[in-house]
Amino acid sequence: MEIKEFIVKMAEAIEIENANSLTAETKFRELGEWSSLSVMLLIVFFDEELDRQIGDTDIKKCQTVGDLYNLATK
Amino acid sequence: MAILSFEGVGIAAMAAAVPHTVINNYSYTDYFPANQVKEVVDKVGVYERRFADADTCSSDLCFDAAERLIADNDIDRNEIDLLVFISQTPDYRMPATSILLQHRLGLKQSCIAFDINLGCAAFCYGLSVVYGMMQSGGIRKVLLLDGETRSKVYSPKDRRSAFIFGDAGVAALIERDEKFERSVFSLNSDGSLGDLIMIKGGGYRHPSSVETLKERVVDEYGNIRNDEQGYMRGGDVFNFVIREVPRDIKRTLEYAGLTTADFDYYVFHQANNFINSYIAKKMKLDTSKIPSTIAKYGNTSSVSVPLTIISELKDNMVGEKRLLLSAFGVGMSWATGIVPFVDCRISDIVEV
Prior knowledge:
The complex is a heterodimer of chains A (74) and B (352). Chain A has 74 residues and is mainly α. Chain A has a single domain, classed as Non-ribosomal Peptide Synthetase Peptidyl Carrier Protein, Chain A (Orthogonal Bundle). Chain A has helices spanning 3-13, 36-50, 56-60, 65-73. Chain A is globular. The model of chain B has no long low-confidence stretch (mean pLDDT 96). Chain B has one domain (1-352): Peroxisomal Thiolase, Chain A, domain 1.
């Protein structure tokens, strides 16, 4: 999956309205929509869309959308 | 593979007690703004919960449930040969609460009584222990009591756990009878995940002290608790659950030679609505067969599975019913149960 596609799908999954505003450098925790619940949505997104199992610990290590993309594709 | 099966033993009757105090979660706004609360509440699907008052323990809820069970079913107390109390919110660190309940319930001295200290998956563990002991043949009737006052465990200032937990107690009468077909239980443990859900202080590893009682900010979201209050790493729990729970259910069904279509109801631990909906979707289960009490009682830990049966299936248990029970929680400890019911008598829920 290319990072563009990843961003669009992830934005939808974690309920971020304007996916166009996101880049690999975006710090996702600074987004207005980000909350502790977003973690759950992100885990579902990884499980459903990417068949990858991640937890809090994996997400904690990520700062940017690019880090999440690396987690998804590594 | 720790899979157990039993025949000729089952749950003949059940009763439950809940505290009378209803917490409306939208209005639980002492520490967080209403809009934030609403967002969390809508996601976890817990709209109401019951909170025990300061003087009411898990044992008191179970006591009232047991008295109702005994009265409604005309049980001869002398025939109760075993009492098991499941809880992680006991009256004392010692003695075991089950033994105090033996006396309070007027049971004879030759009654076996002990506690099981396990979390959300414990009801299946309790059934397995009781069914196993009944195979010895010397036990006529059993009271399986399961109670929790988790409202007293978690910090109201930690939004990851403040809106989820509630209190309740249940009592189940277990008897031997040819009419009960095979029950199957799969019981699992993974202590490497012991720190996913934990109350760190107040045991003997980190005894109670000024330090353990000190409130502090614990994460980047500004959540506050002390070390004698429970915490939960929700994301890691969720990640564990969506992987292991469907796997264990599949494995247990394969062992028993059954498919999900062979069940009248699937009763899941009421962790939160988000998790349960996702498991149902992932396993492609018929949601009309999944009773739920998460909206009105919240997560009552190990009580949630039997409480959901009592609350939601009271009028649906005539004749033979096969239930799939599935629960997971602190430990991590998780269980799947295939449990046949035959004309199970269910009492009205008592308010304490």
